[in-house]
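RECORD TYPE: protein structure
NAME: PAS domain S-box protein
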Amino acid sequence: METIIDFCFGEIFVTDGNGTVLRVNPAGEAFYGMKASEIVAKTTEELAKGSLSPSLFPIVKERKERISMIQQT
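PREDICTED:
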């Protein structure tokens, strides 16, 4: 599974139920311009205040419903 995640061309960004980042693949690193070590173990709320804004996770966590958004970075 790790190999598939690492070689996937699309961004894979995995969080736990509290929004703590567990894994980001190399495509995600390139997309956000950050190393995984700068992202993993931080919460989406922390990241949303910086370069990964806007983040849907805090909104989904609060509302507990499906939300769609177009994000331009």
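COMMENT: Helices lie at 2-7, 26-32, 36-39, 44-48, 57-63.
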